[in-house]
Amino acid sequence: MHHDQEDHDLGFHHDLPRLVSRRQLLAMFGGVGAVALSGLPASALECIALPWETAGPYPADGSNVRSGQVVNALTEEGIIRTDLRPSFGTLTPVADGAQLDLELTLVNADGCTPLANHAIYIWHCDTTGNYSLYDTPDANYLRGVGIADADGKVRFTTIFPGCYDGRWPHIHFEIFQSAESAVAGDASLLTAQIALPEDVSADVYAADSRYSNGTRNLSRISIARDMVFRDNTDAELAQQTLAVTGDAASALSGTVTIPVDLTAAKPAFRSAPPAGNPPATPQN
User: Fold this and answer.
1) Phi–psi pair at 103, nearest 5 degrees
2) What is the Cα–Cα distance from 244 to 169, expressed in whole angstroms?
3) Is residue 278 part of a domain?
4) Are 153 and 117 in contact (CB under 8 A)?
5) pLDDT tens, residue by residue, 66-95
6) Separation of CA 142 from chain center
7) Distance CA 182, CA 6 (A)
8) pTM for this predicted structure
9) Distance CA 143, CA 122 (A)
10) Domain assignment present for 176
11) CATH number for the domain harbouring residue 189
């Protein structure tokens, strides 16, 4: 389909004071329903530990290269942020698309207790399936790190991701014990992906011309045939599917609870393809 890579300096520590504020809202499971957190302990929620998934070829987390340079957005000043639509650091392009306000709840799968102060790095494609720093090397938008508050909540504002040929619409993420662990290159506690709901995806792609290939590509794939999600159980898929409300013409809101099995061993995945030699079928 496309794709390549790049490098950066230090700045994560400058962003550490910018922690997400504590609030109590709703946590929803895609396809399962909603559970109000107010007055309920986190352990009252259903917790299905999410399976490890590949990070794909375009994580920009220091694990691969583009044109001979390591690509690592995690060490760049400005990476800890709430609004993922603008580029940060020395780059200036801004991503265009239907606004999506995310609330992610990070919990320990053992007891559903909040993973306070843990860091989550998320990244996803633009409206037509391109990734910043790889397909669009002069931009680093649609990437960012958030720090969980006391309730395990992290909030971002981004755009609704597009659908490119060969993959179900999705958002990548990596969870780290702390912001310091992420910038130091420590291994993630979980690398996985959030699935987007089919009905909302279809509506957004059909109504918004910025998603010019979304309807066509979504019609060619099902979550049951997706190379990443097809091995997951129905319970896992329900847990990792974003619950979306709102209107794409104004703003969509998405919520999901991410239970992490802190004892799970990282499986072996195929490494990302060499720089300059993207796969015929997208791996991310």
Assistant:
1) -130, 110
2) 13
3) no
4) no
5) 999 999 999 999 999 999 999 999 999 999
6) 9
7) 18
8) 0.82
9) 6
10) yes
11) 2.60.130.10
Phi, psi (rounded to 5 degrees) for 17: -65, -15
Q: Are 46 and 29 in contact (CB under 8 A)?
A: yes
| Residues in Cβ contact with 94 at an 8 Å cutoff, skipping those fewer than 6 apart | 85, 86, 87, 141
Question: Based on the number of CB atoms within 10 Å of its own CB, is 201 exposed (0-12), middle (13-18) or buried (19 or more)?
Answer: buried
| pLDDT tens digits, one per residue of 265-274 | 888 764 444 3
Distances, alpha carbon 199 to alpha carbons 76, 141, 202, 207, 237, in Å: 36, 26, 5, 12, 15
Tokens of 232: 């997951």
The DSSP H or E segment spanning 181 is helix 179-183
Closest CA relative to residue 130, chosen from 167, 178, 182, 75: 167
The answer to whether residues 147 and 17 touch, using CB atoms and an 8 Å cutoff, is no
Residue 146: give the domain boundaries: 12-259
pLDDT tens per residue across span 238-252: 999 999 999 989 999
User: Does residue 270 form part of some domain?
Assistant: no
Any residues with CB less than 8 A from the CB of 180 and at least 6 apart, and which?
12, 13, 16
In 3D, which of 226, 169, 236 has the Cα closest to residue 199?
Answer: 169
C-alpha R_g of the chain? 17
